[in-house]
Write a structure and sequence with these properties.
single chain, alpha/beta, five-stranded mixed sheet, 4 helices, 33% strand
């Protein structure tokens, strides 16, 4: 997803890496439209693979509109359904304000940095297998 603005192209990207069984999804750019191939939805794909946990880092997001809120809520629903711990790194007003206004912040485990988010995910006991 890209957009032309003042001669510069803004691109939304997501990069996924693994850290001791926990998936980190780092999102960079503007989240202003809901698209089925949105890079933010890589976090939902990561949850479906059922890792020990998923951390979504939104600190490099420069715009976070209602589409971003909706997509993040979808990631949370998927993590809840799959019983995969989810932590969101969000320390910037750009992301925190829309989450607070929408009330979605009450659903999510928000952390000011990656270290705290990883520690929180590691502290969740693994689900019992039947």
């Amino acid at each position: 997803m890209s957009r032309q603005s003042d001669g510069a192209v803004e691109v939304l990207t997501a990069h996924t890496t693994e850290h001791d069984g926990i998936t980190l999804v780092t999102v960079v750019g503007e989240i202003d439209r809901m698209k089925p191939d949105s890079p933010l939805l890589q976090a939902a794909d990561a949850v479906r693979r059922r890792p020990a946990g998923v951390v979504v880092d939104l600190d490099a997001v420069t715009f976070f509109g209602s589409a971003g809120v909706n997509m993040l809520a979808a990631v949370w629903q998927e993590s809840d359904a799959q019983a995969v711990p989810l932590a969101i790194v969000a320390s910037k007003r750009t992301v925190l304000m829309p989450l607070t206004i929408s009330g979605v912040d009450a659903l999510l485990a928000l952390y000011p940095n990656r270290s705290d988010a990883f520690a929180a995910v590691r502290a969740v006991p693994p689900p019992r297998r039947r």
